[in-house]
């Protein structure tokens, strides 16, 4: 019996290659230090485009989001708090909100972690999952679940904007998802 080889989604592979190229281009073309190229902004807002890969079901869905970051002070500029809102266009649209604490290891590279909640609205015809079927039987067709998000990112400044490839892992009680993509943002 031959084992099936699991393949990485093509979009994720393209994202990894684009991120690696952006990283090498940034280091190769820039002769200035990070402190000179990255300006301090107390607020930062960005539009997230990417994918959410459900590792249990081996499915990847388009994800659209908005990210906000608030740096606590200039003296403590390494620490900030964020707010992330995402729409996952799966079989049913799923809504996520995450409140991460962000540690900037360098001006460009950061680590983040925080709690989140996911909501999904399931129509009466969508009973393909035991959890979804139980919710549909309750009559409201709504499901919410808490999770923890842990992630990394690296921001490149392009003029007044930033381009930030990110990679996050969402840990739910029953599954783990990989959220990956690029945020295009602006500090103010």
Would you mind describing this structure in some detail?
Strands 1, 2, 3, 4, 5, 6, 7, 8, 9 and 10 form a 10-stranded antiparallel sheet that branches. The protein has one domain: Porin (Beta Barrel). Residues 1-7, 26-37 and 130-138 have low confidence and may be disordered. It has helices at 10-29, 34-37, 130-138; strands at residues 43-54, 59-71, 79-89, 93-98, 101-104, 109-121, 142-154, 156-158, 161-171, 176-187. 18% of the residues lie in helices and 52% in strands. With 188 residues, the chain is an alpha+beta fold. The protein is globular.
Any key phrases for this structure?
disordered N terminus; 188 residues; 3 helices; 18% helix; single chain; Porin; alpha+beta
What kind of sheet is the major sheet?
A: 10 strands, antiparallel
CATH class identity = Mainly Beta
Shape: globular
CATH topology: Porin
* First-last Cα distance: 59 Å
Strand content: over 45%
The number of helical segments is: 3
